[in-house]
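thoughts on my protein:
***
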Amino acid sequence: MKIRCAISPDADDRFMFRAIELGLIDTEGLDFEIVAKDTEALNHTASDRDDPRGPPDVTAISIAHYPAIADRYLLLNHGGSVGRNYGPVLIARGDRVAALRRSLAGARIAVPGVTTTACLTLRLLAGASPASPVFTPVTVPIAPPSLTFDALRDASPAGPRLDAALIIHEGRLTYAAEGFALVMDIGEAWTTRTGLPLPLGGNVVRRDLEIPLRERINRVIHASIEHALLRDRAAAIGWLLERPGPLRSVAQVDEYLKLYANADTLDYGADGREGIQRLLGDGAAVGWLPRCTVDVLAAPTASFTGATQDPR
């Protein structure tokens, strides 16, 4: 049975789905057709009601986009990326940092998409509402990563005239080498405000699939994540380095995976799930999101127990 699956091209998603992609685990008779899209495109794909094939059976999404698709998808309890006192970063040219730290009012800020968790979190931290938006988001696709850095450098009259950029994924490890400075780590700011981790992305599965099929999908994806984290991490890092991307050393990939593919990826945990509720509740209270109930499909009860290393 073919399972249509959409993920991001970033190292953490590739890492999680590697065992499925390479046939390293038992997929219980399921044939995963995996396509990669950037974060905003994934969110739009999950919302697309005009695709004659229907939405993907499984897709990665921004947690902030879940309310828009809650009627069609269940959130898996695994496969998520969580920032614990860290997260996406707001960066700028050095001469703009001090002013932006004082206020974002009137700033034009490159964002990876207005449906992303990063954009919602920055809006909440800035005290923005639909009636009083504070800053102007300018969507710049995250792939290739150089697009955002080049747009922020471009100070020509014909350019996008950006004051800052909100960077997600691997760019948080490379922005300094690109010549930019930190204005704010929004994951750190969120934890300071709420005392909770910042849930960034997650995997969802279609509600209309038969329950036994959903359970098979749930088990296989969990097993693939477990394989990468606990059985084959070093080989998975080597495999990632064979692919094109901004991270070009074992140390860089290792650091990135420690941030976004770790124990929280196997299970959000109680505080991670509370963080999801807080983020979506705050977004709805201000008017950025519709209110919804977050239905989480529990992780499989059978779990690999032979780990000899901490998945963080």
